[in-house]
Amino acid sequence: MQSFTYERAASAEQAAAAVAARPDAKFISGGTNLLDLMKLEIERPAHLVDISRLPLDRIEETAEGGLRVGAQVRNSDLAADPRVRSRYPMLTQALLAGASGQIRNKASTSGNLLQRTRCPYFYDRNMPCNKREQGSGCAALQGFNRMHAVLGASEACIAVHSSDMAVAMSGLDARIETISPGGETRTIPIGDFHRLPEATPHVETVLGHGEMIAAVTLPSPPPGRQVYRKVRDRASYAFALVSVAAIVETSGDRIRSARIAMGGVAAKPWRATEAERTLAGAAASDGAFTDAAEAALAGAVGHGGNDFKIPLAKRTMRHTLAAAAESA
Amino acid sequence: MTETKTSENRPSEPRNGVIGRPIDRIDGPLKVTGDATYAYENALDGTAYGYILGAAVAKGRIAEIDTAEAERAPAVLLVMTHRNAPAQPDFGPAVTPTVPEVFTRARPALNSERVRYYDEPVALVVAETFEAARAAAGLIKVRYDEAPGVYDLPGHKADAYAPKRTNAGFETDSVVGDFESAFAAAPVKIDATYRTPFEHHNPMEPHATLAAWSGNELTIHTSAQTLANFRAGVASTLRIPPERVRIVSPFIGGGFGSKLIAHADTILAALAAQFLQRPVKIALTRQQMFANAGHRAEMIQQVRLGADTDGRLTGIAHDVWSATSSFEEYCEQTAVFARSLYAAPDRVTRHRLVPLDINRGEWMRSPGEAPGMLAFECAMDELAERLGLDPIELRIRNEPAQDPERGVPFSTRNLVACMEEGARRFGWVRREPTPGRTREGRKLIGYGMAAAIRPNYIGAATARVAIDRDGRVTARLDMTDIGTGTYTILTQIAAESLGVPISSVKVELGDSRFPRTAGSGGSWGAASAGSALHNACNALKQRILEAAQSSEASPLRGANATEASFADSEVRVGQQSAGLADLIRRIAPAGFEAEGSVAPGATTESYKAYSQHSYGAHFAEVAVDCDTGEIRMRRMLAVMGAGRILNAKTARSQIIGGMTWGIGAALMEQTVLDPRYGHFVNHDLAEYHVPINGDVPEMEVVFLEEHDDKANPLGAKGLGELGVCGAGAAVANAIYNATGVRVREFPITLDKVLPALPVIAI
Predict the structure, then answer these.
(1) pLDDT over 80 at A328, yes or no
(2) Beta-carbon pairs below 8 A across chains A and B
(3) Domain ranges across chain B
(4) Which of A60, B208, B247, B530 has its CA 20 to 30 Å from the CA of residue B637?
């Protein structure tokens, strides 16, 4: 870990300005990912702006009937909020499926969205990694890639985004509110927030330098039953091999609408819009769920070690859709 | 729950003493309140902090190393590389002339520009703070001349060689009769090849050392299982007499075999402390432990079993190809247990090694049995199915009357009793013999079992015990408690032997100034150190009695000592009795002291005359998700016959810990060696999975009551590692029973069963 200077931000505007003023500055909140990366010198910020104490830790009702989640709400608190539990159960399930109790107590909402990949080659400075060092190559492509992406990857990078929370938020059409150094704000749909790797895997979101997440807004809960299903190598404290967040609205034997997002398969929470389309208006049947799963993974490409994720994601999605479609 | 069940091996005397009672750990309060001081927590004035920089390549040499910037960095005191490190002996040959020298040989660090494995230390930075040292290490620039290396066991299986011996000095091969002919003629056969992966110990406490010199005396606070090995290894490397090295290790946060010898933290702390004339503290990081603190090597195991149609084994072959290091050989004794477990007229076991450019493998919990039984006990399950026999019945039909390898009787062997008792308790009759038939909702349910065997070792050990005028007993020996409960069982042994309450006994361990023992490892600790202490207590009692009979001040003067007993803090001789403390005050105000010893087991007549092992049976129930293939444990049971149980609570903890290792080996533990770069890819605890609480189901442990009077005066046998032996195979066999999928490549992750799982209608 290299030495750094530290300041505690007094306001959101001041925090954004403080980071914008230095190209080598970064925000820090819970630090559950950044500090690990700093110890390994994968992140080497010279200046940290601590935003964890900003008054962005409230969960408020919105006029449209949703919730506005402050960026500094801790994962544990978000999961336990009675309004989240009752209206967005999928989000609580996803949060509680992530990390460990200790980490959830520290991790913030915005930090969770901005966590970096867990690709082991990214974590080892002696290995080629285009995300860590542009142009150095991708060791995972021909290497140990059991955990890696099957959708939206590129020759430059096949890393995945490891968040569970973000997958549920994707299915809920969350919007991310940011504040920029000048004080201006903007709202980014979660689907547009993370970028696919293409040739620039080191650029992971659409945020500008110094632009800070202030809140995440959840629209009013969509109709239908919500289910988050995470498949992993052990019962807890493991990243998703694949995960599926599904909201299925039924009317009699038919599906009115479905929203589906997948985790563990891409560099961002992967919204399965093709699958959603195949389900709209279809009979709530095994065949429809199977077709949806096929549609969701139609463009999937394995890299050897992660080939199994494609059938695994299909099977998981089929069953999760069925569970969500059960009499809501 | 834990239970002790009476079986035919009853103790010869009634036991009402404190040995065996499930008392809480003596050191428990210290540990939970943070008052137990671990190596890195020791504080000495003027301590400097070291940080090791590891090699970025797996094979080659350092062409250039630029330390200038690191040396100029704030608070840096020393940057040590091969250019300025104190002279040390060369590493020497890959195989030591004798087995003990493996533990005592010099292990030089930073003594050469060559790189032998990935993350091998290439520099040490010492600074006023840990943070300054680590930051400066990041400023060192190293250029390597990289050489091509070999990092792939299966691809180089053809290059395998036969080592001269395996770990612990066992023979490399064993051949009885003519296996190939017997196998060819066998009406029923299994020929199955299993793969077991690299695994890492990952004790909770990393390897850490604080070294301090006082004149030419070196004191090392470290985390060690075996103090004598550390002392000898440090002395050999620094070329100083062992008497000038003191090792202190009173508390150890787990070792599992990875702390039997000194590693780079110890050697470099000692060298840097000498160089700077200041105490120096170094810990390996979790990531560095993967390359620098031992591992279990990857193996390919072929098991061939021939049987007649009644299920009697006619031929047994267990062939093992294991990865080893190109510069230091380690051959795990993976097939050795198969020489004693079942009988067949024609048998062969062989060990072969494939040298890779990696660090040396080391002893990892249940070396030999852990990987060996994982394969072999699955093969027995495969054979049972082919024969249409229950797996327990198959094993009963092959129960030998005497040790098949040595031709001597067993001291005790309750394998069949363990299996039968386990079957009854587990509800084994409910197991559906045809796999893939039992479903609950969308889960496939399966039962599996496996046998367990582990040799009983006794290492040379001496203990010293003293009693003072207040009747307080102090036992001292250089034994260690690596979390197993050694403090507690030794306290119980001394208390029972001397007839004093637990609260009157203080056991002091982990200091090389105390009498030497074999330390903790190979499940020999309790029996070895315990027997030495038992003998020391007997010697102490003898000394007290002699004085009591002869001293003029003694109330027992002239009493007949052959009927003496020590109980309830009294000494009773015939009809006479005296309070122990009062007696000592009268006859020896300075108290008494005595020593006791045990000789290594293999040298004793009893060991030569009897086959000494602990046995057990493992049972497992798993649920496999039809949709995702996720495998989760439902319950496990172990029934163990391991001699006299010294503390029912710590013994149970040892066994459930071992069973948890079995879950890990069966389901998740694997370190991936990248065949291109030669590094362990998943070298942290996020990516190297060990079971967490949610993976560990309800576990039941039952001890069959035994007293092995051939093993040692206590009647106890090695226990800890028995919990691992076969546990993983029971899980694997349950997975087969649940799914009908036989996965022979460990760990059994969901991707390996998923393709064969039926798609069940929604």
Answers:
(1) no
(2) 100
(3) 1-15+365-458+601-671+695-753, 39-148+204-292, 459-599
(4) B530
When pLDDT is cut at 50, 70 and 90, the band that residue A237 belongs to is: very high
> What residues in B contact A41, CB-CB < 8 Å?
138
Helices (H), chain A: 12-20, 34-39, 75-80, 82-87, 89-97, 101-106, 109-114, 165-171, 190-193, 273-279, 286-296, 309-325
Angstroms from A288 CA to nearest CA on chain B? 11
Q: Is B750 on the interface with A (CB under 8 A)?
A: yes
Q: Give the span between the Cα atoms of B494 and B502, in whole angstroms.
A: 8
pLDDT of residue B280: 98
pTM recorded for the entire structure: 0.97
Name the residue in chain A with its Cα closest to that of B134: A1
Q: What top-level class would CATH report for the domain B39-148+204-292?
A: alpha beta
Instruction: In whole angstroms, give the CA distance from residue B66 to residue B73.
Output: 13
Which chain B residues touch A40 with a CB distance below 8 Å?
287
Yes or no: say if A255 and A267 are a contact pair by the CB < 8 Å rule: no
Contact between A232 and B630 using a beta-carbon 8 Å cutoff: yes
Question: What pLDDT was estimated at residue B196?
Answer: 98
CATH topology of domain A225-325: Enolase-like; domain 1 (3.30.390)
Q: Look at residue B112 in the predicted model and tell me its pLDDT.
A: 97
- Residue B135 and residue A118: Cβ atoms within 8 Å? no
Please report residues of B whose CB lies closer than 8 A to that of A144.
672, 674, 681-682
Q: Which residue of A has its CA nearest to B686?
A: A238
Q: Which fold has domain B1-15+365-458+601-671+695-753?
A: Aldehyde Oxidoreductase; domain 4 (3.30.365)
Looking at residue B749, its pLDDT comes to 98
Q: What mean pLDDT comes out for the span A171-179? A: 98
With beta carbons under 8 A apart, name residues in chain A contacting B286: none
**Distance between CA atoms of B303 and B313, rounded to whole angstroms?**
13
Nearest to B268 by CA among B203, B209, B227, B207: B209
Backbone angles phi, psi at B306, to 5 degrees: -115, 140
Query: Across the interface, do A1 and B689 touch by the CB < 8 Å criterion?
Result: no
Given B113, B440, B721, B745, the catalytic residue: B721
Of all residues in chain A, the one with the smallest CA distance to B756 is A311
DSSP state of B167: G
Residues of A in contact with B693 (CB under 8 A): 236
Task: State residue A327's pLDDT score.
Answer: 59
Mean pLDDT, chain B cut into blocks of 10 residues (762 residues total): 47 65 97 97 97 98 98 98 98 96 97 98 98 98 98 97 97 98 98 98 98 98 98 98 98 98 98 98 98 98 98 98 98 97 97 98 98 98 98 98 95 97 98 97 98 95 98 98 97 98 98 97 93 97 94 90 88 94 96 96 90 97 98 98 96 98 98 98 97 97 95 92 98 98 98 95 90
- On whether any CB of chain A is under 8 Å from the CB of B630, the answer is yes
- Rounded Cα distance between B361 and B103, Å, is 13
Q: Which residues contact B447 (CB under 8 A, 6 or more apart)?
A: B426, B428, B430, B431, B619, B620, B621, B734, B737
Those of residues 20-79 in B touching chain A at CB distance below 8 A are 56-57, 74
CB count within 10 Å of CB A223 equals: 13
pLDDT the model gives residue B559? 84
- Cβ contact, residue pair A144, B674, below 8 Å: yes
- Return d(Cα B205, Cα B38) in angstroms, integer: 8
Structure tokens at B632: 């989760």
Asked whether this complex has an ipTM greater than 0.90, the answer is yes
**β pairing state of B299-307 and B313-325:** antiparallel
For A121, name the nearest residue in chain B, comparing CA atoms only. Answer: B681
Q: Is residue B721 flagged as an active site residue?
A: yes
Q: Does A126 touch chain B (CB under 8 A)?
A: yes
